[in-house]
Amino acid sequence: MTYQVLARKYRPQQFDEVAAQEHVTRTLKNGLSSGRLSSGYLFTGPRGTGKTTTARILAKAFNCINGPTPTPCDQCPSCREIIAGSSLDVLEIDAASNTGVDDIRTLRENVRYLPTSGKKRIYIIDEVHRLSGSAFDALLKTLEEPPAHVVFIFATTEPFKVPETIRSRTQRYDFRRVNVADLTAHLKKIAASEKIEIDDEALFILARKADGAVRDALSLLDQLSAFSGEKITAQNVIDALGLVDRQLYFKYVDTVAAKDHAGGLALVKELIDAGVEVPEFCSGLIEHFRTIMILQNAVSPEKILELSESEMESFKKQVDYFTTGDILRIIKILTDMTLDLKNNIDPRLLLETSTLRLSSLESTVSFEEILAHLAGPMEDLPESAGADLFGAPVQAPPADDDKPSLFPDKPPQPEEVTPGVAVRAVNLPIVQTSWPRFIECLKGQNAMLSALLAMSEVRDVKDNVITAVFHNAGGTSKQVLEKPNYVATINSALLDFFKTNLRIRFEVDMNKRPVTPPKAAAPPPEKIDTEKLLQEDEKLRNLVARIDGEIIGKRKAEE
Q1: Structural domain of 534
Q2: Are residues 159 and 62 in the same domain?
Q3: Model-level pTM?
């Protein structure tokens, strides 16, 4: 017996069998049940979502011996002929091959003939947007006032190319892209019927590759069945379809986040040697960073992202590697790379240079926070007799007798004590004095943390807990720094720098505003002898007399 491909073997024959298009099938069934039938239908949506299949089921529903009915019997001669594609009353026309006005004129002449055995003469025109403008004009009158025995069903993937005059004379139904979960369940049911053993991860990859098209998914399952036999694994799917293993993306992002130039270049070589297409890898990498961005910002990311549980856990491990600003810049770099790939530049060179750019990328800090940091410290400086170069008052250094001890007698904080490290208390003045040097040391470990922490002000040290305060616009910096892994990094750096166990906490002072340094006052006008000036300068004397003016002063010209 001749083998029948899965896409044809499992083509739905009833409305309830159409996958994930209940909003369409339910409306059609209710219309058939109530007798509210139209002479024109327009089915739109992505490829492989069931438009032509639904059109054939609708044709059966019209011409079934029990019709019009929402459940055609599939047993009567009319139903069997439609299933076999031999019905004289259901004509399928490919608009891509019959685009001319003459083809539509022939159709218009034929609509006068009554159906041979069914109740309706049904014209299914696939890819109707391919018709020419004159062909649409020829169809318009027939569609507006068709004979009672004629029904038109149009299918298209590009509804915006169908003239509004045609769309307004039909009932439009939009078919949706089938989501990964529904498509996975559909494939699992068919695989069980075919006795194909396939694991859930392989089904998930297959459904995602199909991009919402049921027909594409079944064709891929056919291909994999021939490749792997009756047992299909996730690795089989990757190998058979030439996909990029998703673990390579996680490995690449780890390398970029670690700023490992050598590791990044070695990974590029590994990708090229494995035969990975650079444009496909770049496209997948953009999608990878998009996923991280959504995990950072969405309230319910699982409703947006189509990920398996294992993939979700892997992404959550990388969600703190970058700020949202970093990811936006990374996506821009990768998008520019995809454009450069179309200009016949060496793909390997582009991937290597982009990898070095990404691994050298400094963390994003908002401009407002930088301005606030530059202006903020000038606000709360204590008054003193002296002033710094910018005119701001500076506090005189304490006398030797008044200098605080680096380690005053204070009981140590028992929490989070590192074994083998002597715990001594430090006080506010010594931390404030050493804070700039600590920030500089932290920069060698993590430039982003150093930049964000530099925008804070050490306001209190109590029981070896440092309180760092941000101004009223520093809430974003506080949220980033409070992530557990970043707090651990800072606490470890504090231990290395101060040689004692310290912890840090962050606050936002809503009353603390960035202060812009006041502009220098303009110098006062130079006192002059106006009478003498008028006597010496004839032009000035004439000008003053003409406008009835008065000289009030003179400023020195700036060099």
Answers
A1: 522-559
A2: yes
A3: 0.61
